[in-house]
Amino acid sequence: MSAPHDPVQRADFDQVMVPNYAPAAFIPVRGAGSRVWDQAGRELIDFAGGIAVNVLGHAHPALVGALTEQANKLWHVSNVFTNEPALRLAHKLVDATFADRAFFCNSGAEANEAAFKLARRVAHDRFGPEKHEIIATVNSFHGRTLFTVSVGGQPKYSDGFGPKITGISHVPYNDLEALKAQISDKTCAVVIEPIQGESGVVPADVAYLQGARELCDKHNALLIFDEVQTGVGRTGELFAYQHYGVTPDILSSAKSLGGGFPIGAMLTTNELAKHLTVGTHGTTYGGNPLACAVANAVLDVVNTPEVLAGVKAKHQQFKTRLEQIGEKYGLFTQVRGVGLLIGCVLSEAWKGKAKDVFNAAEKEGLMVLQAGPDVVRFAPSLVVEEADIKEGLDRFERAAAKLTQA
C-alpha cells in the first residue's frame, strides 16, 4: 500500500514521541471489523478493542457513514452555540438511562473530572465547604488529570507530580464494612467502578453496590459510577448499573461511546445538574458535531435487543473456551468479568507475566490486553463475528501452548 507521505516505522516512536508509552513492535494501518493489518500486510484478530473502545470494531459502515456525512456539514462551532448532533445524543442518553441531563467532553478523564467537580459543587452549595471529601477504592482508575489521578487508587500513577488534591481517601473494593467505617457527613461523593477495569477486571458484588447506595443516601453523599470502561453495551446492558439494578446519582461514560472517536459524557439528574450554572464548567471541543454524530450512530446500533443479547451469548463462548485453555495449559486459574469485558487471572507460576502472554498472542496474530501484571484482558468488539471468535481463540490457544512449552 503506497504511503501518502514519507514512510515512518516503529523506530520513529523512540525518536520523536514522549517516551511515556511502550507500544508494540508493529504499527497497525488498517482495520475492518475485528481484523487489523499492519505495515507489512500481516493480519491480526483484535480482541483488545482499543482498550474497550472499538465497540463496533474497525471501520463499521454505520460509523463511517455518520462521520463522513457530518464531516461535510459542520465540524466545530464551540459551546457558544449548540448543535443538532449533541442535542440528539443527549436525548438518546437521557431516554435510555436514569439521567435527565448530559454534559459532553472528550475523554473518560474529563467525564470523571466533571463528575467530581459537580459532586463538590453540589455539597458546597447545599451544605458548605466542609463537605468536600471523596471516597474511592484501592486500585481504582479514573483518569490521568491531577484530580482524577488523585481520586484513582493507584499511587504509582499519582506520585511524583507535586501535592495531591486533598480530601480524598481510598477503601478496599467490594468491602462494604470498610466503606461504612470511612463515610461521614463530610463525604460529598463515593466513586466506584461497577467492574474495576485497569486493575484486573474485578466485578462488584450486587450487595456492595446496594450497600454503597444506602450509605450515600444516609450521609447525603452522591454515588458516582465510573462507567468509562463498562458502559455502552460492554456488560450486555447499555450501562452496568442496569445490570446490577443500582442507580447512581452521576455516571461517567467515554471509551465505547464514540466507538473510536474521542467523546466523553457525564450524566446526572435535573436536581444536581442545576448546580453547574453558566460559567462553572466548560470545554472547547466537548459535544462537537463530529463526535456526537458518531456517538449517535454507536447508540443506534448498540442499544438494540439483538446486540445486547449477543454480548451475553458471546461472553459464554469466550468464558467456556478460555477456561478450557487455562486448565489445559495451567496458564490461569479464573476467568472473570461480565459481558465482553473479561479477565483471565494468571496462575501462580505465571503471576506477573501478563506482558509475556500479550507478546505470545501477538506472535500468533492476536491482539489482547493486560489488566495489571497478573491478568490478561479481553475487550473485543460487541459485534465480533463467530468466525473471528473461533479463530482468535484458536490463535490464543496456540500462544498458550508455545508459552507453556518454552
Question: Can you characterise this structure?
Answer:
The structure is a single chain. The strands form 4 sheets. A 7-stranded mixed sheet has the order 4-12-11-10-7-5-6, with helices on both faces. It starts with 9 loop residues before the first helix and ends with a helix. The chain has 2 domains: 10-60 and 305-405, Aspartate Aminotransferase, domain 1; 74-302, Aspartate Aminotransferase, domain 2, CATH 3.40.640. The chain has 15 helices and 17 strands. With 406 residues, the protein is α/β, with parallel strands linked by helices.
Content of β-strand: 15-25%
Number of helices: 15
Determine the fraction of residues in helical runs and give it as a percent range.
40-55%
Q: Quick one: overall form? A: globular
CATH class category label of the largest domain: Alpha Beta
CATH topology of the largest domain: Aspartate Aminotransferase, domain 2
Please state how the strands of the largest beta sheet are arranged side by side: 4-12-11-10-7-5-6
Keywords:
arginine biosynthesis, 406 residues, Aspartate Aminotransferase, domain 2, 15 helices, transferase, globular, four-stranded mixed β-sheet, seven-stranded mixed β-sheet, single chain, 40% helix, 17 strands, 2 domains, alpha/beta, Aspartate Aminotransferase, domain 1
Q: Brief description of this entry?
A:
The protein has 15 helices and 17 strands.
Could you give the topology of this structure?
Blueprint: H1 10-16, E1 28-32, E2 35-38, E3 43-46, H2 49-52, H3 61-71, H4 84-96, E4 101-105, H5 108-127, E5 133-137, H6 146-151, H7 155-158, E6 168-171, H8 176-182, E7 187-192, E8 195-196, E9 202-203, H9 206-218, E10 222-226, H10 240-244, E11 250-253, E12 264-268, H11 270-273, H12 289-302, H13 305-329, E13 332-338, E14 341-346, H14 354-363, E15 366-367, E16 369-370, E17 375-378, H15 386-405
Parallel strand pairs: 3-15, 5-6, 5-7, 7-10, 10-11
Antiparallel strand pairs: 1-2, 2-3, 4-12, 8-9, 11-12, 13-14, 14-17, 16-17
Helix pairs in contact: 3-12, 4-12, 13-15, 14-15
